[in-house]
Amino acid sequence: MIDVDMSDPQALRSELLRFLEGDGFTFTAIESTESLEVGSDIENHFRDTPVFDLPADLLREYLELQGRRYYAHYPDPMAEALSMTQIHAMGALGSVSGDCGNLVRRLGFRRTEDGDVEFFVEKGPTPPPPDYGEGEFGWFADPPTG
What we know:
Layout: H1 9-21, E1 25-29, E2 35-40, E3 51-53, H2 56-70, H3 77-94, E4 104-111, E5 117-123
Protein name: SUKH-3 immunity protein of toxin-antitoxin system
Region (Disordered): 125-146
């Protein structure tokens, strides 16, 4: 169970970061913003340094909305929403795309055109697969005889 003051936006922000730090992610504040540069204790995990846009007020609004929409039947809808948000953020930051590492460039919370708050993930382009050419690379159903 999450033990945090659900009415305090800064406490919610701190709890989300604490969870991600437990999975080996580091955060460096970007001066005069509520955004953070994300690092990892795994060397070369990120292809680019991701930015986590984490305004505490938008996070709280997002959690309230998610709690009402999806977790209203739970004893603590906000805690359920925070738990799922932690998992989504960890999934976005923890995934890798083959040999090129994690492609996330930016993630976080932002206001949409219709006024809602959304969790978003923006990734860089996936590099083309290596060209191995023809010949020695391949898989054959039957081993060679001889």
